[in-house]
Design goal:
About 60% of the residues lie in helices and about 10% in strands. By secondary structure, it is mainly alpha-helical.
Amino acid sequence: MSVQESRQATGRKQARRPAFDRDVAERLATTEYQRVADLLERLTPEQWAADSGCPGWDVRAMAGHMLGMLQMVASRRELVRQQLASARAAKREGGLLIDALTALQVRKNAGLSTSELTAEVRRVAPRAVKGRVGLPAFLRTQTMQDEQDGWWTYAYLMDVVLTRDPFMHRIDITRATGEPMAATADHEGVLVDDVVREWAGRHGMPFTLELSGPAGGRWQEGEGGERLSMDAFDFCRVLSGRGPATGLLTTQVPF
């Protein structure tokens, strides 16, 4: 076995897994998709046209991507179609697969009116949840190499990342539009807690962290170390690469 093959094998063995059970993942996904649809239904035409904060996307484009992700996991055929098409585009253009995938999703849903897009989110969401939690066990344990973050199990992608993605985009949209961000301890608080624990495991250093708001709390590992205090959603934005970071906050977490 070559050095590269040995490193790949080690990476697969250490591939990231979800920290919570599948029933928790199902509840979080279901609630997150409901929150997305509720937010989109409140938006005015001016808010749909607002800059999302992600380069090249207004809120309408971001919502098209969010629906595209739902469509992808709601149908095995659509999953294969999107993956193959984006892989070809990434190879042709020399970019990242994830960028090609999200661009494809925006284009796919560009022809929908905003009311049609919102209705489609509500219609597809239950099938997307079923497609994610119903992934066969032998596939959940398979590994994939993320272009920027190392090795993941498919269970981590399905149970964790695909719920964090719309959660983060809700933060983006509420910041762009001034709409209130839903914040409860039993949903957003669970998502933030999972992010904190993964972040702590990634950097492995002592710290004390206090996050404000209904989704916040207090965490401590070891003695001494950095003391951090900030809004819970701002913390998530920084760890996603959306804000300036120093010290332990430079350790990013996938969203």
